[in-house]
Write a structure and sequence with these properties.
Chain B: Belongs to the LSM12 family. The structure holds two protein chains of two kinds. Chain A is mostly helical. Chain A has 39 helices and six strands. In chain A, helix 21 crosses helix 31 (687-693). Chain B folds into two domains: 14-71, Roll (SH3 type barrels); 98-180. Helices cover 38% and strands 28% of the residues of chain B. Classes of the chains: A mainly alpha, B alpha+beta.
Chain lengths: 823, 196
């Protein structure tokens, strides 16, 4: 306000005067007036006419400066205003003029800040980024992007004697892929190539990719990515095979570095080949994969350069493992992994967000996303992966079998129950309408079905592979912080989920929520269902109960799980920044559903520390008011209020988003039905839930959108038309992975976990969530929470984290806040 | 800002000395001057001698009889940093509350010793307040007149023992201060006798 006012009056025009008089606000001042009396008080503010407002004023005895006895209460006047015409002097003693500026991040503040208690001026060093003021700076030519890591290591070693233990092979996190010539290896490789081609040959996928790469590309996306050197360079190395990865993890050391999956766009040039590839059976030995399309599985010899194969992409040379084309592809970009983004035209890699997928292999961090995408079924994180493997033994049946009784008012509850794919398709139709723009749903359905069939087959194979896998059991889980990035880029939501036939849930949700939701978000509809569940959980759980406690309360393991899932979903909510449009999407619901599914198979699953995520979820779910849940702030805050977790949640939120989205997607497409199931089970225990569920849909969760953008979508399995929508992307997983080998629930969990912190076990999430749930409800007001995250819960310090404190705002020169008139 | 004629305004950074109509001489560095309201703001070394603190004086030049410029500014003043207003507002509020709280205690007839003790404790533990004549520390420990260590009551625990230590140290310091003053007084007496 003050800032906006164009004209300041009187003293307010004098920036310096205003600054110094503002800087002494809150200090004790002695005001001497014309008649010689001295008043002491706390300086509060001044008006534009330089009238001074002083609080808690008492008249001092005559002796000057004497620290006379403190005043009695009755001698103190609450507030006095001194007119400039009466004022002779105002003396503020012992004022720290930097009191209110210390926290500002300015050169002055930095240079004058204390160092270890010493008041030593720091000498600022000139930035040596080039002497032209950034104008003649040549971005293209400057290959040195800051310090080289090795340079840093060397510097530290020389200067501080610190020796880095960094191992570029990242052996702590992964195991090198042994490129064997064994039959099994070749088969896997071939299969990976086939899967990739299948996915990439999907029109929907391509459409999506083109959208991502060209239309949706922002300038930043175009130019912020690391530039790859020549495509030819070391492609072999960088191009790890997705498949291998996907399989993943089954394969003996799927080195992230070794085999990279190159996103379609990059390979566009090779598109033709890809199609060819489809023809080639999966079984075929890896050697002639090049056509296979995007996947550039490098031959055993990781370094492409060394490999005899011709660099040309076009060359169809019968090179063994890797197609030459692949190498030629831009992706090859050096280890950077960022390469995917190339501008090269339409084919360019997915948007920044997406990059993780492609990079994933090359870069350890990226793993999660890419993997999940490619194989749909596979969890991104190592942890997830594990889960999935466990799940494998279990029949996919879970997803279809589970009928979801959606408590929500969803339009098509009945449909939900039906697991048949056909029904889903039907349902999709209507949904799409609601969604409006996205229309993708319909498209994806078909694709998804196809995918599915394939998937099933694959999954079986995968299971075998998994058993064989020699992955390093001690490998650390990778917790990608990157997920956050996705948030920024919602658009990218690369992975179009494949609509699984079995997922009626999705449809149902849309119906109920349909009006509210935007087209893209339709998939989130499922939320409704979840909501009731959540509510139930809340009720059952004790307010402050420990994680474990909640379960006991529920009696059924499932509820906690659900909650956990919800919590996972909830995290996205935190993102609140997103428009209400996203609200509709209830990650929680999905997650819950998923969780439930998961639960079924593994009731006893251990709970992991994921609490944070869970907490979030809980908060959302727990919140009695759907509305509260909806806004980003809502969910988080409630949780926070309960416990210390709040802050953490905030931190993790970004990640969670991505995860959530993943979770969400899954449930919708494939698992949807399953998700529905849980509600019925729980329904009995918690009647109240239903009621909540009704409103919940409205609550809208922002998280959905956020998550969407996250990497999960990235996956190659774009087959689903939905692909354009982030959320949908998740669905893919469900289709592929879930149905077949992995129980839906498990998959969902995996996603959730990933979202939370990466490799968390779903089980763990559940518990934490429970805890969170109870607290949130009381705290959150029904209505208020959702919209204004900051205001809402008022949650405490934690919340502040996310939300900028209004108070924190710094007023530069103008004390405006203090001066009503001025403003 | 209306441009005052040459010689009529102060340049920021110069050092001036003023004599008010009340006979008070003030000296410091000009940090701000408002021509319209005739207000001059000076920054002076802290009267308590602390290096990181300053005294800030707002002078109404309408009541100044004499102004001397000791030296003109030598450098361009640094740019103004932004201020965290909410932080300032919070300070104003807590300062006021503290003052009022103290005033309540005095009104209740708390002895000077009690007030001093309160100030001492308050330096260490912000969470202390008056309740009638009792000092309540952290809502846990009650110190009642005559405010000796044995007057600290509360749940046995670290809080109580901690407060006791503070109280004991406070009175120890007061004692040592008194004795020092005494010795100093004696010293000055000796000096004066010697010199005379």
């Amino acid at each position: 306000p003050f800032q906006s006012s164009p004209v300041f009056e009187g003293v307010y025009n004098n920036a310096r005067m205003l600054h110094f008089l503002t800087a002494v606000v809150g200090s004790t001042c002695d005001i001497r007036v014309k008649n010689g009396s001295v008043y002491e008080g706390i300086f509060k503010t001044l008006s534009s006419r330089c009238e001074l407002a002083v609080d808690a004023v008492h008249k001092r005895s005559e002796e000057e400066g004497s620290t006379s006895a403190p005043p009695r209460r009755e001698e103190i006047t609450d507030t006095m205003i001194f007119s400039p015409s009466d004022l002779v002097t105002m003396i503020c003693r012992d004022v720290d003029l930097n009191y209110a500026t210390r926290d500002s991040f300015t050169d002055t503040a930095i240079s004058s800040s204390r160092v270890n208690g010493e008041h030593k001026e720091k000498v600022l060093q000139r930035w040596e980024g080039g002497d032209s003021n950034g104008e003649s700076y040549d971005l293209e030519n400057d290959t040195s992007n800051g310090w080289d890591a090795n340079e840093m290591f060397r510097y530290n070693e020389v200067k501080y004697g610190v020796t880095s233990t960094y191992d570029s092979s990242l052996s702590m996190y992964t195991v090198p892929l042994e490129r064997g010539s064994s039959e099994g290896y070749r088969q896997r490789e071939a299969r990976a190539a086939r899967l990739a081609s299948e996915i990439e040959s999907s029109p929907q996928y391509r459409h999506r990719v083109s959208l991502e790469n060209e239309e949706g590309k922002t300038e930043e996306e175009k130019y912020s990515a690391v530039v790859r050197d020549g495509a030819d360079r070391e492609r072999g190395r960088e191009s790890p095979r997705d498949r291998e990865r996907e399989r993943g993890r089954d394969s003996p050391g799927a080195n992230s570095r070794e085999g990279k999956y190159i996103p379609l766009p990059q390979r566009q040039r090779e598109m033709n080949r890809e199609r060819d590839r489809a023809d080639r059976g999966p079984g075929g030995p890896s050697p002639h994969n090049r056509l296979s399309g995007g996947y550039r599985s490098t031959p055993p010899s990781s370094s492409s350069s060394s490999s005899p194969r011709p660099p040309l992409p076009s060359a169809a040379g019968p090179q063994a493992g890797v197609s030459p084309a692949e190498r030629s592809s831009p992706l090859s970009g050096r280890g950077g992994g960022f390469a995917p983004h190339h501008p090269q035209g339409s084919p360019t890699a997915q948007s920044p967000a997406s990059p993780p997928a492609p990079h994933g292999h090359s870069v350890p961090h990226s793993h999660s996303l890419p993997h999940s995408l490619s194989d749909a079924g596979r969890p991104v994180n190592g942890g997830e992966w594990k889960v999935s493997s466990e799940a494998k033994p279990q029949p996919p049946a879970a997803s279809p079998s589970q009928p979801q009784p959606s408590p929500a008012p969803a339009e098509e509850p009945t449909k939900d129950t039906s697991t048949a794919p056909n029904t889903t398709a039907a349902s999709t139709g209507p949904i799409s309408d609601r969604q409006s723009p996205a229309a993708p749903q319909p498209a994806r359905t078909p694709g998804s079905e196809e995918v599915r069939s394939e998937t099933t087959e694959r999954t079986e194979g995968v299971a075998d592979q998994v058993k064989k896998s020699t992955l390093n059991p001690n490998a650390k889980e990778f917790n990608p912080i990157k997920p956050q990035m996705p948030m920024s880029k919602p658009n990218t939501a690369p992975t179009p989920p494949r609509p699984t036939p079995p997922s009626p849930v999705v449809l149902q949700h849309p119906g109920g929520q349909g009006p509210l939701y935007n087209g893209p978000y339709l998939s989130y509809v499922s939320q409704i269902h979840s909501v009731p569940l959540k509510s139930w959980c809340l009720n059952s759980t004790p307010p402050s109960g420990s994680v474990v406690a909640p379960r006991s309360d529920h009696g059924t393991s499932a509820p906690p799980m659900l909650q956990a899932a919800a919590s996972a979903a909830g995290a996205p909510l935190v993102a609140s920044p997103y428009p209400q449009s996203y609200l509709q999407y209830n990650p929680q619901q999905y997650s819950q559903q998923q969780v439930i599914q998961a639960m079924t198979p593994y009731p006893g699953q251990p709970v992991y520390p994921m609490l944070q995520g869970g907490a979030r979820m809980i908060g959302q779910g727990g919140a009695p008011h759907p509305q509260a849940l909806g806004p980003p702030g809502g969910p988080q805050f409630p949780a926070q209020g309960d416990g210390p977790q709040g802050p953490q949640q905030g931190i993790y939120a970004p990640q969670s988003f991505s995860h959530h989205s993943g979770a969400v997607h899954q449930p919708q497409p494939s698992s949807t039905p399953t998700g529905n199931q849980p509600p019925p089970q729980h329904a009995a225990p918690s009647p109240g839930q239903n009621a909540q569920s009704g409103p919940q849909p409205q609550s809208l969760y922002h998280s959905g959108p956020l998550s969407a953008p996250t990497p999960p979508n990235m996956p190659p399995g774009h087959t689903s038309p939905q692909g354009s929508y982030p959320i949908q992307g998740y669905s893919i997983h469900g289709h592929q992975g879930i149905p077949h080998t992995y129980p839906l629930g498990q998959l969902a969990q995996a996603h959730v976990q990933g979202a939370m912190s990466g490799p968390h076990h779903s089980g763990s999430h559940g518990q934490p969530q429970l805890v969170m749930l109870q607290p949130p409800p009381p705290q959150q007001g029904p209505g208020s929470v959702p919209q204004h995250p900051q205001h809402g819960p008022q949650q405490g310090a934690h919340q502040h984290f996310y939300i900028g404190h209004p108070q924190a705002m710094q007023v530069q020169t103008h004390p405006s806040p203090f001066h009503p008139p001025g403003n | 800002m209306a441009a005052p004629g040459p010689g009529e305004y102060f340049s920021v950074g110069s050092h001036v000395s003023c004599l008010t109509c009340l006979g008070q001489r003030l000296q410091g560095e000009v940090v701000a001057f408002d021509y319209q309201s005739k207000m001059l703001t000076l920054k002076c070394a802290s009267s308590s001698g602390k290096p990181n603190l300053n005294d800030v004086i707002l002078i109404n030049l309408a009541y100044v009889s004499e102004v001397d410029i000791i030296n003109d500014r030598t450098e361009t003043p640094p740019p103004l940093a932004s201020l965290n207003v909410s932080k300032l507002a919070n300070r104003a509020r807590t300062e006021k509350e503290d003052k009022l709280s103290q005033a309540y205690a005095i009104s209740a007839g708390v002895s000077v010793e009690g007030q001093q003790l309160f100030q001492t404790i308050h330096k260490t533990i912000k969470d202390c307040k008056w309740q009638e004549k009792n000092i309540i520390v952290m809502d846990d420990v009650v110190i009642s007149p005559p405010y000796q260590a044995e007057n600290c009551k509360g749940k046995e625990g670290s809080a109580l023992s901690h407060v006791r230590k503070i109280v004991e140290k406070h009175f120890r310091d007061v004692e040592s201060q008194k004795s020092m003053q005494r010795s100093q007084a004696q010293q000055t007496q000796k000096d004066s006798t010697l010199s005379s």
